Amino acid sequence: MSQFQVSVGHRCSPLEVRSVNKAKDMEEESNVSSSPSTRLRHRKQQRSSSAEAVVDGNPSPLLVNDQNKYKSFMVRTYSTIWMIGGFVMVVYMGHLYITAMVLVIQIFMAKELFNLLRKAPEDKCLPGIKHLNWHFFFTAMLFVYGRILSQRLANTVTADQFLYRLVSGLIKYHMAICYLLYIIGFMWFILTLKKKMYKYQFGQYAWTHMILIVVFTQSSFTVANIFEGIFWFLLPASLIIINDIFAYIFGFFFGRTPLIKLSPKKTWEGFIGASVTTIISAFFLANIMGRFPWLTCPRQDLSTGWLQCDADPLFKPEPFTLPAWIPGWFPWKEMEVLPVQWHSLCLGLFASIIAPFGGFFASGFKRAFKIKDFGDSIPGHGGITDRMDCQMVMAVFAYIYLQSFIVSQSVSVDKILDQILTNLTLEEQQALFTRLGQMIGYS
Asked: According to its UniProt record, in which pathway does this protein act (predicted)?
């Protein structure tokens, strides 16, 4: 029997429904009738279980005053080394593997966010609700990735006529397939509505769609950046990592002034130190990354071979004379600079000043749900969502900046060919080829 049949056919017994409602009533009653002393003891227990240090009898969440900070620092350092090592290996493997990594990250993020509003008693009476959430997730994934990768998939299979026809058909009816899958999920949701569970079920439905917007909005921009050139994915992601690491280091050793109440451990010292370090790193990282065709060439198909292309003017070194106010003892008066390095300063400025607000938003979100982290999959860091909060903001900005100020919006031969391959059938392409031959012959 399928999961759909189980979820439709399952009926909570009156005893189960009463037990769920009784649990809700007891929870509300305990929240209302608890005395101030009881609430105070509860808050003290929460404080004692957290990692906050105590100085002169007052809670002090700053890292510089944390008695266990060296232990947590080592755990966080080991996890960071492993993550950076794995990240570098995936980047070395290429565009397709980076996209697969983004997909895995999305799944973990969705899992952590789905679990925030899960309630065991209600889920026991609604056994198909978890599968329904994932149905909507994979439908959205098919829609987003289909739109982004369809053109490159067509470029990959052009040599095989059968595969090309199959892929062309899938591309043509892609939106219809996604809409059909969504309608199936919508009908599934309506058919599984149960009395006294409406509020919870509609809450889960709305929460699922909110997660899809948050997760797939940033991922679509991220994947688009990857195929424009790994450089446009790697540099913004690296700047967020650098900013996060140095904010932690400066706050760890020098943090004294709290920055924002939403994140008690964030300090002005950490924020300013990380900002300066990130902007400087952006300038020099862009110079290093911009010299590798593997990172700068766009990928037009889904193959995994090494890329070679004519360097874009952005990645060709140009002489730059240092301004007159540079001190005379400085050994260089002229240096080679890639034009993209000036753009990297904008990315570094955004990564250090604006992107951290994604982290502040996540901190406020966690406070609203009274949790410390979204998950515990990364020792010392929390969950995947805890690491991706700033990355989501940065990926959107990098894409908008790239398309607005860097990528040429004029029509090119490559763009026209891509449109021909994805939108015309084989017979139409042959007819176009014949007409072009006739036009060239007449000229």
From this structure: Phospholipid metabolism; CDP-diacylglycerol biosynthesis; CDP-diacylglycerol from sn-glycerol 3-phosphate: step 3/3; Lipid metabolism
Q: Are the beta carbons of 145 and 223 closer than 8 angstroms?
A: yes
Q: Report the C-alpha gap between 252 and 246 in whole angstroms.
A: 9
Under DSSP, the state recorded for 378 is B
Both tokens of residue 375? 């998950």
Give the Cα-Cα-Cα angle 116, 120, 122 (nearest 5 degrees).
Answer: 100
Tokens of 308: 């070679």
- 267 phi and psi, to 5 degrees? -130, 160
Tell me which DSSP letter residue 406 carries: I
Residue 269's CB: how many other CB atoms inside 10 A?
Answer: 20
Tens of pLDDT, residues 401-434: 999 998 865 456 766 776 777 677 778 888 888 8
**What does the alpha-carbon distance between residue 328 and residue 325 come to, in Å, rounded to a whole number?**
9
Instruction: List the chain domain ranges.
Output: 1-49+94-228
Task: Kindly report which listed range (175-179, 254-258, 302-306) carries the lowest average pLDDT score.
Answer: 302-306
**What's the start-to-end Cα distance of the chain, in Å?**
68
Contact 79, 381 (CB under 8 A): yes
